[in-house]
Amino acid sequence: MIDSHCHLDFDIFDSDLHQIIEDAKAAGVSRFLIPGTTPDGWQRQLTLKQKYPYIDIALGLHPYFPDTLIDRHIDTLEAVLADNQQQVVALGEIGLDSTVEIAMAQQERMLCAQLELAQTLHLPVILHHRKTHHLLLKHINALNFKEGGVIHAFSGSEQVARDYIDRGFYLGIGGTITYSRASKTREAVASLPLSSLLLETDAPDMPLCGYQGERNTPAKVSLVAQTLAQLHDTSIDHISEITDGNYRRLFCSEGNEGERPSA
Ligand SMILES: [Zn+2]
């Protein structure tokens, strides 16, 4: 299994990262994607990527950390991506979040600049959303964005999910589906094709049901897979095989060039 979204570069994993990775492997999780959030984090991610061959990285500017230096950061991002083309599988984590006190216009400017950069570099994107599906879809359409990507921590209706799938996106499925109160998302995920889903944790955030208040870790992908298997009335092995294949189709160009679903 693959954790397609975990922030293993965050300080909270500094002291025991090796053990966290060993625990994940013991739970059947053997590959990890660390999305980027800030310019400071990009170097840490590149260092981790060098140390652990089964870690993939994406670089980007997360909507939680905007500041007055957006233009300079975008220029830096472009330069760092150019210098590390072989090391980077996607541009992200980027997106829009209406629950934080950061002007939406500023978030949209940062999103669009990065979508354009991804389009130029032919990189898929990792998209963060919170009550912003309509805006994300608006910008994806306005830019005629064709590189695809993943909707991180998908929650929402089946129709919204299909709008993204139609535009070449996968849906990142994490701990949300382990909560019975998330009935709309659980119903949507149950009716969506497995060929459009990726597994993720968002570790250290988004703890699964029963683990609230604890640091989330990539080993928990196995429990997300178990819940997804129940929702689709199939086996964990099947879930793991299909979602691993989806991951490779989206993020690994080895032998797959041109196989990304087109928008
Ligand atoms: Zn994240």
TrEMBL record:
Domain of life: Bacteria
Signal peptide: none
Swiss-Prot/TrEMBL keywords: Hydrolase, Metal-binding
GO molecular function list: hydrolase activity
Cited InterPro entries: DNase_TatD-rel_CS, Metal_Hydrolase, TatD-like, TatD/YcfH-like
CDD domains (alphabetical): TatD_DNAse
UniProt cross-references to SUPFAM superfamilies, sorted A to Z: Metallo-dependent hydrolases
Name of a matching Pfam family: TatD_DNase
Family the entry assigns: Belongs to the metallo-dependent hydrolases superfamily. TatD-type hydrolase family.
Annotated protein name in UniProt: TatD family hydrolase
Organism: Salinimonas profundi
